[in-house]
Amino acid sequence: MNTLFLTWQDAVSRAWFPIGKLTHDGHRYCFVYIQGALQAQSVANFRPLLAFPEFDRAYTSIELFWPFANRLLNKSRPEYPEFIDWLNLDSNGNPGSIDPITLLGRSGGKRVTDSLEVFSMPDRNAAGEYEIHFFTHGLRHYPASAQQRAAECTIGEELMLMHDIQNEYDANALMLRTIDRHNIGFCPRYLVKDFFQLVGKQPQAVKVVVEKVNPAPTPLQFRLLCKLTAKWTQEFQPFSGDEYQSLVPIAAALAECC
């Protein structure tokens, strides 16, 4: 079953809260709120989305729900093949064949008109390791010299994780630094909790490399694609915190849907 998480950013504190889970079993989509939505409601006055007005209900559909569908670039757009190239997804010569869950998970589905973003469940790669792709965040806030250094990165170049403990917005922020000591962005906030767990268990097994460099005028949010791999220990489970627990059972909702 393919899984995406939906996260929401509070405009005041700039904090991110995971609020929902979207799954696809090959036939139907199912969306449910998770415990993080209630935390966001309590801390930051989050309210249910218009398309999903009830916290305690599972929503199912054969078609992709519009809050997710409108985050996908239309396949008929002339820039669509270029967009797929930015994401470094293998389309086997047919960009239109890539499924929506994969597209959203890689791109993040970010829109300038709202405060929502999506991210995917990490996979085990062929070696059985934890593997996840992400674009660097915050590059637009860096000086031109940092953006230039990011543009000069090479595929396969290793990057270092740096804990930005005095970050005024997020004391758990993880910066990305080149070997020659240039800071070139941040890891997405919604991934750092798991990253800290992986680094804490076996730091030498955690590796971040540049997967794709998209030159200007590619938007900065898609400029640098990275890949993190780590040893997937038996006791580790991604996104296992209470905030990721579903408010209603997904399996039951899919079973009841005709």
Describe the structure in your own words:
The protein has 258 residues and is α+β, with helices and mostly antiparallel strands. The protein contains 7 helices and 12 strands. The chain has helices at residues 35-44, 66-69, 80-87, 100-107, 144-151, 189-201, 250-256, and strands at residues 2-9, 16-24, 29-33, 59-61, 116-120, 123-124, 130-135, 158-163, 174-178, 183-186, 207-213, 224-230. β6 and β7 (130-135) form a beta hairpin. It starts with a strand and ends with a helix.
Summarize the topology.
Layout: E1 2-9, E2 16-24, E3 29-33, H1 35-44, E4 59-61, H2 66-69, H3 80-87, H4 100-107, E5 116-120, E6 123-124, E7 130-135, H5 144-151, E8 158-163, E9 174-178, E10 183-186, H6 189-201, E11 207-213, E12 224-230, H7 250-256
Antiparallel strand pairs: 1-2, 1-5, 2-3, 3-4, 6-7, 7-12, 8-9, 8-11, 9-10, 11-12
Helix content: 10-25%
In the predicted model, the low-confidence regions spanning at least 5 consecutive residues are none
User: What share of residues are in beta strands?
Assistant: 25-35%
Q: How can the largest sheet be summarized?
A: 7 strands, antiparallel
Discrete helix count: 7
The overall pLDDT, averaged over residues, is 90
Main-sheet strand order equals 6-7-12-11-8-9-10
The radius of gyration is 18 Å
Straight-line N-to-C gap = 18 Å
Short description:
With 258 residues, the chain is of the alpha+beta class. It contains seven helices and twelve strands.
